[in-house]
Specification:
Elements: H1 41-52, H2 54-57, E1 78-82, E2 86-91, E3 97-101, E4 118-124, E5 127-133, E6 153-162, E7 165-173, E8 182-189
Parallel strand pairs: 3-4
Antiparallel strand pairs: 1-2, 2-3, 4-5, 5-6, 6-7, 7-8
């Protein structure tokens, strides 16, 4: 287990606001190789502004789909369904479903801006290698404001460390935001409780609460 959902880089613990002390931030070790994301200067400034305003700007707070790779390490379970040419990942969080095609097909022509991107995969021995393209710029990597642009491209690698543990690695490329490609890795553990099942976590982006958090979503008052 890790706290990458809070911050994929190292972070110190911090108290929550007086009005909401339960929103305190846990200390955590990062999952980024080398310890630091290689931001361009302007992008790092934006990250810092995101962090200061995360209780208002975080896409998770506003019930938007969290995107890839963030949904992989949020504190909600998921189930993997596999056929020879297709892998579906079913998430407890907002009933999200991710479609991964393992049929030799290529990404559709872009630009296309999707919350979860477009996933096409192949097998490299026992390792599943997934190419993910066609994102929007509205998702973050974590609650600390780490961000990307619509030009982000991912290469994910899923391999078994043992029968109950998946080793997950993802390489991130985005020349609009980062100075070079970078990578993070972590372990994903099988849930083994005898009564385990995916439950429901409802969160609606347009229920009158989250509407208006982005300029393009604002409605007249």
């Amino acid at each position: 287990m890790n706290n990458a959902a809070w911050n994929i880089e190292d972070q110190n613990a911090a108290p929550g606001p007086h009005s909401a002390p339960w929103l305190g931030i846990p200390a955590s070790r990062g999952v980024v190789e080398g310890g630091e994301i290689p931001y361009q200067p302007a992008a790092r400034t934006k990250r810092d502004e995101n962090d200061k305003n995360r209780l208002r700007l975080d896409p998770e707070v506003n019930c938007f789909l969290p995107g890839v790779p963030r949904i992989t390490y949020m504190p909600f379970p998921f189930q993997i369904v596999q056929t020879p040419t297709y892998i579906g990942i079913l998430y407890e969080y907002v009933h999200a479903v991710r479609h991964i095609y393992v049929d030799g097909s290529t990404h559709p022509e872009g630009p296309i801006e999707w919350w979860m991107g477009d996933s096409r995969a192949r097998w490299d021995g026992d390792t599943l290698v997934v190419s993910v393209r066609h994102f929007n710029a509205d998702t973050w990597f974590d609650r600390a404001g780490n961000h990307h642009s619509e030009e982000m491209q991912l290469t994910e690698r899923y391999s078994f460390a043992d029968r109950d543990t998946i080793r997950y690695e993802v390489t991130v490329e985005d020349p609009k935001v980062f100075t070079r490609p970078w990578k993070m890795s972590m372990l994903l553990y099988r849930r083994k409780e005898p009564n385990f099942q995916l439950l429901e976590h409802e969160c609606y982006a347009f229920d009158g609460v989250a509407v208006g958090t982005r300029p393009q979503d604002r409605i007249a008052r």
